[in-house]
TrEMBL record:
GO terms for cellular component: bacterial-type flagellum basal body. NCBIfam families: PRK06003.1 (NF004653). Residues 19-35 form the Flagellar basal body rod protein N-terminal domain. Belongs to the flagella basal body rod proteins family. It is found in: Bacterial flagellum basal body. Keywords: Cell projection, Cilium, Flagellum. Signal peptide: none annotated. This is Flagellar basal body rod protein FlgB. It comes from Rhizobium anhuiense. The keyword Ion transport does not apply.
Length: 130
């Protein structure tokens, strides 16, 4: 039996969301620290490019799958400069509005991830019972 890759994909995204939330929380905590530069993580698409998941194309109308490798590295890098606030007099580059928006986006993605896994789990249980 083939392993169910949805759970692996959901697990990788949950790990990525955890790292991103830690980085965003650090940015918010250091919003008043002089010369602190805001950080962000690589997009999840880049993490998927390094994953060990092969998507199957079962219908010609489906998008073609990518081959992924198994590193799953999540790089933390300096965030792009927020054009609205720029660099403050203290040298800080954290925009609180942007960081709070990222935090809300992380929660939304985590909720979606959790509900998809829960729905898939219920579907699997229904097929086993019959």
């Amino acid at each position: 039996m083939q392993p169910i890759q949805l759970f692996d994909l959901a697990s990788r995204q949950a790990e990525w969301l955890t790292v991103r939330q830690q980085v965003v929380a650090s940015n918010i905590a250091n919003a008043n620290t002089p010369k602190f530069h805001a950080k962000d993580v690589t997009p999840f698409d880049a993490v998927l490019d390094n994953a060990d998941i092969t998507m199957a194309r079962t219908n010609p109308a489906h998008l073609s799958g990518n081959d992924f490798s198994d590193s799953g590295d999540i790089d933390v890098k300096d965030a792009a400069l927020d054009q609205e606030i720029g660099i403050q007099e203290s040298g800080n580059t954290v925009g609180l509005a942007e960081e709070l928006s990222k935090s809300g986006d992380i929660k939304r993605q985590y909720d979606l991830n959790t509900s998809l896994v829960s729905s898939f789990n219920r579907m699997m249980l229904m097929t086993v019972r019959k």
